Amino acid sequence: MTKDIETEDGIHVSMLEDGILKVELHRPAKLNALKLRDFSEISRIFREIERNPDVRVVILTGAGRGFCSGINLDDEADAQANSPNEILEQQYSTATFPLEMRRCRKPIIAAVNGAAVGGGLCLALSADIRIASTKAVFISPFIKIGATSDLGISYLLPRIVGHGVAMEMSLTARSVRADEALRIGLVTRVVEPEELMASALETARTIVGYAPLSVRLTKQVLNHNIDASSLEAAMEIEHRNQAIAVSSVDASEALAAFRERRAPRFKDK
């Protein structure tokens, strides 16, 4: 990378190969539980990724046996001692990473290697593609501790698995294992643990092989149109993005490379 991303302890960032960055939660002894400061740190990392021209695709994963077990319970207990106003201000200041991940124009692949609980579930939901190990499990546990869904889960989960399944997961706090997650559309692929990173890399390499502008506009239009008011409104955004994409230098190069049966040489123009 020509522009490094500095990180705090507990989150490791490294370039795996040209265009592909790995963000790894790194507290394996605690199944990568998040401290309150980590929420802001994750937001900052994804803002940096958005500005980094060397990054084309991000793989988000966890070290060891867990993907992310959610917030550190000591921090949660401290937060509960605050007044409602103090808790609300804390929510506004720390619970921003789902927005930053959705705003980031670089595709994000969650390689879910183990438990994705609470905040960990939201990290997975905020990614664009989710690939799971057979050891993965997804839990929305808030109701167990007298809390309610936050971090964008009440928005993201129903849009991915449907309202009924999201309601049941949220009201029962039950575990959804990898095979069920695949069946309900929570993940797109399930692989053996030793194959997880290779599978995520295969997907990342495929995306890196396409024109950068086309990739960014595709992520943008899909995220925007999930809330489109009508087909007509959705198609207006499609028309605009298509005009921008097709008139680009890289679109001409992609077409020429296809006709000449060679690899394209994109310039992100």
Report on the architecture of this protein:
- The chain is α/β, with parallel strands linked by helices and 269 residues long.
- Helix content is 48%, strand content 15%.
- The chain contains 12 helices and 9 strands.
- The mean pLDDT is 92.
- The longest helix has 16 residues, at 36-51.
Number of helices: 12
* Cα-to-Cα separation, first versus last residue: 20 Å
Secondary-structure arrangement, i.e. CATH architecture of the largest domain: Alpha-Beta Complex
Would you tell me which CATH topology of the largest domain applies?
2-enoyl-CoA Hydratase, Chain A, domain 1
Secondary structure class reads alpha/beta
Helix content: 40-55%
Radius of gyration: 19 Å
Largest sheet: 6 strands, mixed
Q: What strand order characterises the main sheet?
A: 1-2-3-4-6-9
Order of helices and strands: EEHEHHHEEHEEHHEHEHHHH
CATH class of the largest domain: Alpha Beta
In brief:
The chain has 269 residues and is of the alpha/beta class. It contains 12 helices and 9 strands. Helix 10 runs antiparallel to helix 11 (231-246).
